[in-house]
Amino acid sequence: MPGLISVDWPAPKNVQAATTSRIGGVSLASFDSFNLADHVGDHPAAVLANRELLLEELALPAEPLWLKQVHGRRVITLDGLPTAGPPEADASVSTGPGRVCAVLTADCLPVLFCDRAGTRVAAAHAGWRGLSAGVLEATVAQMLVAPDEIMAWLGPAIGPQAFEVGTDVRAAFVDDDADSASAFVALGDDRWLANIDHLARRRLARAGVTAVYGGGRCTYSEAGMFYSYRRDGITGRMASLLWLSNGE
User: Fold this and answer.
1) For residue 40, what are the domain limits?
2) 3-state secondary structure of 168
Protein backbone atom coordinates (compact mmCIF):
# COMPACT_ATOMS: atom_id res chain seq x y z
CA MET A 1 0.00 0.00 0.00
CA PRO A 2 1.43 3.41 -0.93
CA GLY A 3 2.70 5.55 1.93
CA LEU A 4 1.03 8.95 1.90
CA ILE A 5 1.95 12.20 3.65
CA SER A 6 -0.89 14.05 5.32
CA VAL A 7 -1.81 17.39 3.76
CA ASP A 8 -2.75 19.24 6.94
CA TRP A 9 -4.56 22.45 6.07
CA PRO A 10 -8.08 23.86 6.61
CA ALA A 11 -9.20 23.34 3.01
CA PRO A 12 -12.89 23.00 2.08
CA LYS A 13 -14.19 19.42 2.25
CA ASN A 14 -14.44 19.08 -1.53
CA VAL A 15 -10.72 19.80 -1.94
CA GLN A 16 -8.86 16.49 -1.96
CA ALA A 17 -5.07 16.43 -1.69
CA ALA A 18 -2.21 14.01 -1.10
CA THR A 19 1.55 13.73 -1.29
CA THR A 20 3.24 10.38 -1.77
CA SER A 21 6.38 9.01 -0.18
CA ARG A 22 8.79 6.50 -1.70
CA ILE A 23 7.12 3.65 0.20
CA GLY A 24 4.64 1.06 -1.02
CA GLY A 25 5.25 0.49 -4.72
CA VAL A 26 6.84 -2.10 -6.97
CA SER A 27 9.92 -0.31 -8.36
CA LEU A 28 13.34 -1.81 -7.69
CA ALA A 29 16.54 -0.03 -6.62
CA SER A 30 17.51 2.73 -7.25
CA PHE A 31 13.84 3.65 -7.62
CA ASP A 32 12.48 1.62 -4.73
CA SER A 33 9.70 1.52 -4.42
CA PHE A 34 6.84 3.94 -5.24
CA ASN A 35 8.38 5.92 -8.09
CA LEU A 36 5.78 7.77 -10.16
CA ALA A 37 8.04 9.36 -12.79
CA ASP A 38 8.45 7.87 -16.26
CA HIS A 39 11.50 9.95 -17.22
CA VAL A 40 14.11 8.86 -14.65
CA GLY A 41 15.16 5.45 -16.00
CA ASP A 42 12.80 3.23 -14.02
CA HIS A 43 11.20 0.26 -15.81
CA PRO A 44 8.06 1.53 -17.59
CA ALA A 45 5.96 -1.39 -16.32
CA ALA A 46 6.87 -0.54 -12.73
CA VAL A 47 5.93 3.11 -13.20
CA LEU A 48 2.62 2.11 -14.75
CA ALA A 49 1.89 -0.29 -11.89
CA ASN A 50 2.70 2.42 -9.33
CA ARG A 51 0.42 4.90 -11.07
CA GLU A 52 -2.38 2.34 -11.06
CA LEU A 53 -1.81 1.85 -7.32
CA LEU A 54 -2.07 5.61 -6.87
CA LEU A 55 -5.37 5.75 -8.76
CA GLU A 56 -6.79 2.94 -6.67
CA GLU A 57 -5.50 4.08 -3.28
CA LEU A 58 -6.78 7.66 -3.66
CA ALA A 59 -9.89 6.79 -5.70
CA LEU A 60 -8.87 9.49 -8.16
CA PRO A 61 -11.55 10.71 -10.55
CA ALA A 62 -9.07 10.49 -13.44
CA GLU A 63 -5.43 9.89 -14.23
CA PRO A 64 -3.43 12.91 -13.02
CA LEU A 65 -2.36 15.18 -15.84
CA TRP A 66 1.40 14.76 -15.52
CA LEU A 67 3.47 17.72 -16.67
CA LYS A 68 6.76 17.93 -18.51
CA GLN A 69 8.44 20.04 -15.84
CA VAL A 70 11.22 22.38 -16.98
CA HIS A 71 11.96 24.55 -13.89
CA GLY A 72 10.11 27.49 -15.39
CA ARG A 73 7.04 29.58 -14.53
CA ARG A 74 4.48 28.42 -17.09
CA VAL A 75 1.08 27.57 -15.60
CA ILE A 76 -1.65 25.74 -17.52
CA THR A 77 -5.36 25.43 -16.83
CA LEU A 78 -6.51 21.81 -17.05
CA ASP A 79 -10.19 22.41 -17.72
CA GLY A 80 -10.83 21.62 -21.37
CA LEU A 81 -7.17 20.82 -22.01
CA PRO A 82 -6.59 17.82 -24.31
CA THR A 83 -5.06 14.92 -22.41
CA ALA A 84 -2.76 13.70 -25.19
CA GLY A 85 0.87 14.07 -24.16
CA PRO A 86 2.31 15.86 -21.13
CA PRO A 87 2.23 19.65 -21.55
CA GLU A 88 5.42 21.57 -20.81
CA ALA A 89 4.69 23.52 -17.64
CA ASP A 90 5.58 23.66 -13.95
CA ALA A 91 2.14 24.29 -12.50
CA SER A 92 -1.49 23.56 -13.28
CA VAL A 93 -4.86 24.94 -12.22
CA SER A 94 -8.30 23.31 -12.25
CA THR A 95 -11.66 24.95 -11.61
CA GLY A 96 -13.95 21.93 -11.77
CA PRO A 97 -14.19 18.29 -10.69
CA GLY A 98 -12.70 15.47 -12.72
CA ARG A 99 -9.21 16.83 -13.37
CA VAL A 100 -6.25 16.07 -11.09
CA CYS A 101 -3.41 18.59 -10.75
CA ALA A 102 -0.06 16.94 -10.03
CA VAL A 103 3.66 17.70 -9.79
CA LEU A 104 6.62 15.36 -9.35
CA THR A 105 9.52 16.20 -7.02
CA ALA A 106 12.66 14.81 -5.38
CA ASP A 107 14.13 17.85 -3.51
CA CYS A 108 12.25 20.65 -5.29
CA LEU A 109 9.32 22.10 -3.38
CA PRO A 110 5.76 21.02 -4.27
CA VAL A 111 3.17 23.69 -3.44
CA LEU A 112 -0.56 22.96 -3.41
CA PHE A 113 -3.20 25.72 -3.58
CA CYS A 114 -6.93 26.08 -3.14
CA ASP A 115 -9.36 28.91 -2.61
CA ARG A 116 -11.45 29.18 0.55
CA ALA A 117 -14.66 28.62 -1.43
CA GLY A 118 -13.45 25.30 -2.83
CA THR A 119 -13.92 26.35 -6.46
CA ARG A 120 -10.37 26.01 -7.75
CA VAL A 121 -7.12 24.17 -6.99
CA ALA A 122 -3.56 24.33 -8.27
CA ALA A 123 -0.24 22.51 -7.91
CA ALA A 124 3.21 24.00 -8.55
CA HIS A 125 6.72 22.57 -8.88
CA ALA A 126 9.12 25.06 -7.29
CA GLY A 127 12.83 24.42 -7.39
CA TRP A 128 15.08 27.43 -6.90
CA ARG A 129 14.94 28.32 -10.60
CA GLY A 130 11.16 28.21 -10.70
CA LEU A 131 10.89 30.12 -7.44
CA SER A 132 13.18 32.89 -8.63
CA ALA A 133 11.38 33.00 -11.99
CA GLY A 134 8.03 33.52 -10.24
CA VAL A 135 6.20 30.22 -10.67
CA LEU A 136 4.29 30.69 -7.42
CA GLU A 137 3.20 34.21 -8.30
CA ALA A 138 2.16 33.03 -11.77
CA THR A 139 0.09 30.24 -10.22
CA VAL A 140 -1.66 32.63 -7.86
CA ALA A 141 -2.45 34.96 -10.76
CA GLN A 142 -3.87 32.16 -12.91
CA MET A 143 -6.23 31.03 -10.14
CA LEU A 144 -8.23 34.21 -10.90
CA VAL A 145 -9.30 34.83 -7.33
CA ALA A 146 -8.19 37.39 -4.74
CA PRO A 147 -4.89 36.27 -3.17
CA ASP A 148 -6.27 36.65 0.34
CA GLU A 149 -8.86 33.99 -0.58
CA ILE A 150 -6.09 31.48 -1.40
CA MET A 151 -4.33 29.06 0.92
CA ALA A 152 -1.16 27.14 0.15
CA TRP A 153 0.53 24.03 1.50
CA LEU A 154 4.27 23.33 1.25
CA GLY A 155 5.22 19.70 0.73
CA PRO A 156 8.46 17.80 1.41
CA ALA A 157 11.60 19.37 -0.07
CA ILE A 158 15.31 19.56 0.60
CA GLY A 159 15.83 21.07 4.05
CA PRO A 160 17.86 24.13 5.09
CA GLN A 161 20.68 22.04 6.55
CA ALA A 162 21.22 20.19 3.25
CA PHE A 163 20.53 22.70 0.47
CA GLU A 164 23.98 24.06 -0.30
CA VAL A 165 24.06 26.63 -3.10
CA GLY A 166 26.43 29.10 -4.71
CA THR A 167 26.43 32.88 -4.82
CA ASP A 168 24.50 32.80 -8.11
CA VAL A 169 21.49 31.19 -6.45
CA ARG A 170 21.53 33.63 -3.54
CA ALA A 171 21.84 36.56 -5.95
CA ALA A 172 18.85 35.33 -7.97
CA PHE A 173 16.69 36.01 -4.90
CA VAL A 174 18.46 38.81 -3.04
CA ASP A 175 18.87 41.01 -6.11
CA ASP A 176 15.07 40.95 -6.46
CA ASP A 177 14.18 41.03 -2.75
CA ALA A 178 16.87 42.15 -0.34
CA ASP A 179 14.98 40.77 2.65
CA SER A 180 15.25 37.24 1.25
CA ALA A 181 18.85 37.28 2.50
CA SER A 182 17.42 35.90 5.74
CA ALA A 183 16.84 32.59 3.92
CA PHE A 184 20.60 32.05 3.44
CA VAL A 185 23.32 31.07 5.92
CA ALA A 186 26.94 31.59 4.90
CA LEU A 187 29.24 28.56 4.75
CA GLY A 188 32.30 30.37 3.40
CA ASP A 189 34.06 30.19 0.01
CA ASP A 190 30.97 31.67 -1.68
CA ARG A 191 28.76 28.79 -0.52
CA TRP A 192 25.46 29.14 1.29
CA LEU A 193 22.77 27.03 2.91
CA ALA A 194 19.36 27.99 1.51
CA ASN A 195 15.94 27.59 3.11
CA ILE A 196 13.56 26.87 0.23
CA ASP A 197 10.48 26.88 2.50
CA HIS A 198 11.35 30.37 3.72
CA LEU A 199 11.93 31.61 0.18
CA ALA A 200 8.56 30.21 -0.90
CA ARG A 201 6.77 31.85 2.02
CA ARG A 202 8.32 35.21 1.12
CA ARG A 203 7.28 34.84 -2.51
CA LEU A 204 3.75 33.89 -1.53
CA ALA A 205 3.46 36.77 0.93
CA ARG A 206 4.58 39.22 -1.75
CA ALA A 207 1.86 37.77 -3.99
CA GLY A 208 -0.72 38.38 -1.23
CA VAL A 209 -1.03 34.79 0.03
CA THR A 210 -0.49 34.68 3.79
CA ALA A 211 -2.42 31.50 4.69
CA VAL A 212 0.49 29.07 4.22
CA TYR A 213 0.70 25.65 5.83
CA GLY A 214 3.02 22.65 5.82
CA GLY A 215 6.77 22.72 5.30
CA GLY A 216 9.51 21.26 7.46
CA ARG A 217 9.90 17.81 5.87
CA CYS A 218 13.38 17.22 4.42
CA THR A 219 13.70 14.92 1.44
CA TYR A 220 17.49 14.76 1.78
CA SER A 221 17.68 13.68 5.43
CA GLU A 222 14.62 11.38 5.50
CA ALA A 223 16.15 8.78 3.18
CA GLY A 224 13.77 5.99 4.12
CA MET A 225 10.74 8.14 3.38
CA PHE A 226 11.62 10.36 0.42
CA TYR A 227 13.53 10.39 -2.84
CA SER A 228 16.31 12.98 -3.09
CA TYR A 229 18.04 13.79 -6.35
CA ARG A 230 20.85 15.66 -4.60
CA ARG A 231 21.49 12.76 -2.21
CA ASP A 232 21.21 9.86 -4.67
CA GLY A 233 21.45 11.17 -8.23
CA ILE A 234 19.62 8.26 -9.87
CA THR A 235 16.34 8.08 -8.00
CA GLY A 236 12.55 8.24 -8.29
CA ARG A 237 10.02 11.00 -7.78
CA MET A 238 7.15 11.60 -5.37
CA ALA A 239 3.85 13.13 -6.46
CA SER A 240 1.89 15.95 -4.87
CA LEU A 241 -1.63 16.19 -6.25
CA LEU A 242 -5.08 17.62 -5.61
CA TRP A 243 -8.48 17.79 -7.17
CA LEU A 244 -12.05 18.92 -6.57
CA SER A 245 -14.62 16.29 -5.69
CA ASN A 246 -18.27 16.49 -6.67
CA GLY A 247 -19.50 16.58 -3.10
CA GLU A 248 -19.27 19.37 -0.59
Assistant:
1) 4-157+208-244
2) helix
